[in-house]
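sry for the spam today, last one i promise. struct tokens for design, 251 residues
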């Protein structure tokens, strides 16, 4: 179990708020941000009960089984789209440090053995037209048991591959890598590194959007992180957000 004592020893001097149980770390972080929270401050919980992902999906979590946290950040508004990239790269690096090789899936997932092990959600806070900042939420499955759950075919925990994982140690590894990449947020090399790690590139995909469904080969990502899809008629579609289904590798 995460305890405030363990976190105090590991996180000092980073400001943080710990909750044994909370609905959403992103919600708490957004409130703190609006109240003047400083960049780099952390909200972390041992059990998130109403976590959410993209497209208003819920995030399944059992008590003391995940690494769930949100960071308060003040990025340049023109680089907001890079926050998800930063977290994905950081999680991938940190897991590799403890011997776990993962893949990145556009736009915000980390995959282990083809199943989702980590989801990322960045959100912004505004006061009218004034940008207050952003929060970067990470939910990493550490020991959640999905075997009997509806998500058994699509989700996985680290414990299925490596056994016991020290969540505080892993947290510190991820935060160190986030800090490393966040310092490079104004560089396009960050996007290029993320693109090169995307398992989505070269795959035949189906993107479902409110007004359009795109099917084709995921060819690249553009300067803003949008996915570029090469359709069968050789036209190029650009996707900022949508529900993606993988259909296999390009033949």
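last one done:
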């Amino acid at each position: 179990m995460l305890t405030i004592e363990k976190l105090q020893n590991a996180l000092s001097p980073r400001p943080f708020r710990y909750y044994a149980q909370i609905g959403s770390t992103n919600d708490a972080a957004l409130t703190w941000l609006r109240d003047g929270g400083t960049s780099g401050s952390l909200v972390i919980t041992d059990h998130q009960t109403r976590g959410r992902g993209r497209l208003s999906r819920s995030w399944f979590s059992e008590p003391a089984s995940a690494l769930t946290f949100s960071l308060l950040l003040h990025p340049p508004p023109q680089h907001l789209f890079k926050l998800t990239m930063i977290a994905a790269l950081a999680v991938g690096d940190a897991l590799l440090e403890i011997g776990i090789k993962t893949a990145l899936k556009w736009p915000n997932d980390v995959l282990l053995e083809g199943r989702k092990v980590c989801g990322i959600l960045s959100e912004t806070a505004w006061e009218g037209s004034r940008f207050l900042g952003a929060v970067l939420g990470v939910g990493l499955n550490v020991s959640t048991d999905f075997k009997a759950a509806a998500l058994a075919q699509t989700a996985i925990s680290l414990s299925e591959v490596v056994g016991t994982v020290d969540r505080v140690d892993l947290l510190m590894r991820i935060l160190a890598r986030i800090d490393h990449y966040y310092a490079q947020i104004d560089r396009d090399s960050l996007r290029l590194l993320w693109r090169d790690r995307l398992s989505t590139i070269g795959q035949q995909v189906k993107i479902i959007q409110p007004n359009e469904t795109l099917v084709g080969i995921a060819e690249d990502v553009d300067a803003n992180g949008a996915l570029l899809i090469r359709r069968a008629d050789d036209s190029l579609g650009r996707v900022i957000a949508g529900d993606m289904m993988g259909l296999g590798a390009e033949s």
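The first helix runs from residue 4 to 11. ok im logging off now
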